[in-house]
Amino acid sequence: MTTLKLVPTSVSLVEKAMVRVRDYIRDNDLKVGATLPGEGHFAAELGVSRAVMREAFGALAALHQIDVANGRRAKVAAIDGSVMASSIDHAVATSQVSVADVWDVRRALELRTVALAAQNCTPDQAAAILAAAEGMAAAAHDISLLSRADIELHRAIASASGNPLFLQIVRSFEGLLEVAVPRAWDTRETEQQRRDMLARHLEIAQAVASHDVGGAIAAMDAHFDASIGDLIRNGDAA
Amino acid sequence: MTTLKLVPTSVSLVEKAMVRVRDYIRDNDLKVGATLPGEGHFAAELGVSRAVMREAFGALAALHQIDVANGRRAKVAAIDGSVMASSIDHAVATSQVSVADVWDVRRALELRTVALAAQNCTPDQAAAILAAAEGMAAAAHDISLLSRADIELHRAIASASGNPLFLQIVRSFEGLLEVAVPRAWDTRETEQQRRDMLARHLEIAQAVASHDVGGAIAAMDAHFDASIGDLIRNGDAA
């Protein structure tokens, strides 16, 4: 390994370059998939080096605001939950936020997504929600299949809310769910506990599908009461 | 400008490098402020170039998971709302999400933060919340001062919730609020409209300070009904 110290590019120049690209997107009213000018265009316009622009494009790509594929022009990117997911995973990994804190935020959001889904869901969306709840029951003791159907149910409800920001935030919890959900199912020791949890999920799905807003909220609330109870029993809530 | 094409570093190598740094933080149970090994350490360990590691560090810094200051070792970073803020601002700027969508998410979150704040706030937190509401009234017709106090009130409530994830998500809306709040106040044409809005904020603050959970939720809900009504009238809700 070399001892050569790479001179760090000034953070403020990179930030200025990032702001310029964001302003370009906004001022030109660009939508998802629209092509951006190359790094060279912005570098010349701002009077900064290609290296600075390259770092700015890299940071914007890390934030999923632009897509950069090798050899092609950068495009405006669609939001996806992965940026928030990455923040939340980091906060939990470094003990800045507990799993119980995350679950309380999820509850606040999902009490609303379930109400909106019960109000707004189309027949196709209702069918997908019911299918996910039935998939959980059909998975029986295959915890991995069951967990996937559980995550899919919450995602289908958020999707049926009709508000894409709810969907993205709910999806940003999926990384944690992939760890926590199988663990929670593993610790539901008795058949009765498992049957109760499956029944609660089916109840949520049926209330949404039949446009029963109050019932959907009550069933989701009962579900979170039980899950947060599980978390606390498992010592994840610290 | 040169026509030299910089060869893009493989995205998958950079992603692999990012995962390695995240795993290092997790496996060593590092907390905010802890110092990371240099880029050279990870480059040697992974058998990748310094350029790849430098890009990975840059992406992690863009995601506010590490802090890189010129000439110093990278440190584990504290979460702040700016990453989610940047995602939300991008989604709104590119019409993927409407301002009304954002306000509905805020409402879901802030109905819970206000309930938690009413349950949990310390005397100092209650004083800060009341001071912000009184600051709004004292600002009279200085819209900029009034808007700052309005944003401060919502932040103080989220802070008093005791759940740092709520605080960071609520803070991530502040960029939009800095635009939307002065605009909403500008369009409250009559003295009566302004007085009503100030009274609703004071009502929220007083309910929180007196630990009246139900009253705090009801007052916050009335506030959002009114603000979302303003948005729709101003045509921001499209």
Outline:
With 238 residues, the first copy, chain A, is an all-alpha fold.
Structural topology:
Two copies of one chain form a homodimer.
Chain A: H1 11-27, H2 39-46, H3 50-62, E1 66-67, E2 75-76, H4 82-93, H5 99-120, H6 123-139, H7 143-160, H8 164-171, H9 174-186, H10 191-209, H11 213-234
Antiparallel strand pairs in A: 1-2
**Per DSSP, what share of the residues of chain A sits in E-state strands of 2 or more residues?**
under 5%
How many helices of chain A in DSSP terms? 11
Mean of residue pLDDT of chain A? 89
Please tally the β strands of chain A and state the result.
2
The CATH topology of the largest domain in chain A: Four Helix Bundle (Hemerythrin (Met), subunit A)
CATH superfamily of the largest domain in chain A: GntR ligand-binding domain-like
Query: How many domain units of chain A?
Result: 2
Structural class of chain A: mainly alpha
Q: State the assembly state of the protein chains.
A: homodimer
Q: Distance between termini of chain A?
A: 42 Å
Work out the radius of gyration of chain A: 22 Å
The helix/strand order of chain A is: HHHEEHHHHHHHH
DSSP helix fraction of chain A: over 70%
